[in-house]
Design brief:
The protein is 33% helix and 25% strand. The chain is an alpha+beta fold and 307 residues long.
């Protein structure tokens, strides 16, 4: 029986690549010794039909193509130094639409202080944007260097983008987060000196927790620490949605998920929210508001998986 990529999914494909390469780390970026520091490099591809909602402007498509790459640098605590843009598009795309995409890219590069230094163009049946971001960091943060007793925290509210994708109305906190996410670059550069590990939340909180989990360690998340507003719960109820499902299993927040020792917590000069702790349970769990404990399912957004 022939196994197809849809049978195993994106993460398993990535594990295969990492296992067969001597130079790739399990993190979302490559780390290369460079002079007296480290060159941090990452690339991310966005496809119009899968990554850009129908109500996303061309400008925000361009902006997001930078954000998704810079977010990987932020998770390592790296300082951005350069961005490469490869874009493929239909030959009948309006020139004004192309210019709007590029304006979004340039605005994002200005916002993150990362110059556009090169790239490529090609033809495709839909818009495909592949970015490569470069940064530097002497002591980059890794995903799995936490210890038992470390606290688990995030740099902001999560689940906002997931709900924003469900709403038709524009210009609110939810759709703004979904259509124009922001990478936490400054926060990452501060966290590198205090956190024990970090990653960015792109595929959902649950997926990221399982991604950083190592043997003999577990995570306990507390619902009452997530700070879920009554408004959020009410909107989900009105739409027939499970609010915890949106928070744990959708993603696109681009907040940083990090671990930190209790001793270093008060030294952080950033906004953050403690949501749990590292345990030795070897499972990922959630303590509900009513006190019951349940396992958190390992799922989130993943390419290739059969529906």
């Amino acid at each position: 029986m022939t196994i197809k990529v849809s049978d195993i999914g994106e993460k398993e494909l990535i594990r295969y690549i990492i296992a067969n390469s001597k130079h790739i780390t399990p993190d979302d970026t490559a780390i290369t010794q460079f002079s007296d520091t480290n060159l941090i490099s990452t690339c991310d591809m966005l496809i119009q039909s899968r990554h850009f909602p129908d109500n996303m402007s061309y400008f925000n498509m361009g902006f997001k193509s930078v954000t998704v790459n810079v977010s990987d640098l932020a998770a390592m605590g790296a300082k951005p130094i350069g961005f490469l843009l490869a874009i493929a598009m239909p030959k009948d795309l309006d020139v004004d639409s192309f210019k709007e995409i590029i304006q979004g890219v340039l605005e994002a590069c200005y916002f993150y202080s990362i110059p556009l230094i090169g790239g490529d163009t090609n033809e495709a049946s839909e818009i495909i944007i592949s970015g490569t971001a470069l940064g530097v960091c002497e002591n980059p943060l890794m995903k799995d260097t936490y210890g038992k007793g470390d606290l688990i925290a995030v740099t902001g509210d999560i689940g906002l983008a997931a709900l924003g994708f469900e709403l038709e109305t524009l210009d609110n906190i939810y759709t703004n987060k979904a259509l124009k996410p922001i990478a936490r670059v400054k926060e990452g550069q501060i966290l590198k000196d205090f956190a024990t590990s970090a990653t960015d939340i792109t595929d959902g909180l649950a997926s990221e927790l399982y991604e950083i989990k190592k043997d003999n360690f577990g995570f306990m998340i507390y619902e009452d620490l997530l700070g879920i507003s009554d408004e959020y719960k009410q909107i989900c109820e009105n739409l027939g949605l499970d609010y915890l499902d949106k928070i744990f299993h959708v993603g696109e927040d681009f907040e940083l998920l990090f671990t930190i020792s209790k001793d270093n917590l008060d030294t952080l000069a950033i906004d953050y929210k403690v949501i749990g702790e590292v345990t030795d349970s070897d499972v990922v769990e959630l303590t509900l508001e009513n006190g019951f404990v349940e396992r958190i399912e390992n799922r989130g957004y993943e390419h290739y998986v059969s529906e």
